[in-house]
Specification:
CATH architecture: Orthogonal Bundle
Helix content: 55-70%
Number of strands: 2
Family: Belongs to the prefoldin subunit beta family.
CATH class: Mainly Alpha
Order of helices and strands: HEEH
Subunit structure: Heterohexamer of two PFD-alpha type and four PFD-beta type subunits.
Distance between the termini: 31 Å
GO molecular function, one term: unfolded protein binding
Shape: rod-shaped
Largest sheet: 2 strands, antiparallel
Number of helices: 2
Organism: Cymbomonas tetramitiformis
Structural class: mainly alpha
Strand order of the largest sheet: 1-2
Number of domains: 1
InterPro entries: PFD_beta-like, PFDN4
Strand content: 5-15%
Length: 127
Amino acid sequence: MAQGSDMEVTWEDQQNICSFGNLNNRLHEIAAKINANKKLAEDFEEAGNELMITDEEEVKYVLGECFAYLPNDTAESRLERATEELEAETSVLEEEQADIKKKMAVLKQVLYGKFGNSINLEDETQS
């Protein structure tokens, strides 16, 4: 293997490096969205608990950017549907995250195989 400055970077290597960077960016976007969805799921659960214990026949429910009064049963069913949709979205994101990690592992192996310690593909933001 050639040393750092003697190493030739081919067009294919550049494409692999760019692909790795794009996948890494997408991985961070997905992780942020999954975390936001988990927080929203907690909020939905808390709202569902509040709906169960309330004595009111109508409750305020967020529709878009405003609140509307809805019958308690309607609000519960809308909240359940929103929770199911959120869980489905999170599941799709987690699958995409796993696929991206597999692709990144393959690219890491290829790039480290060629460049060794001359290239850094580790993510310092993850602990």
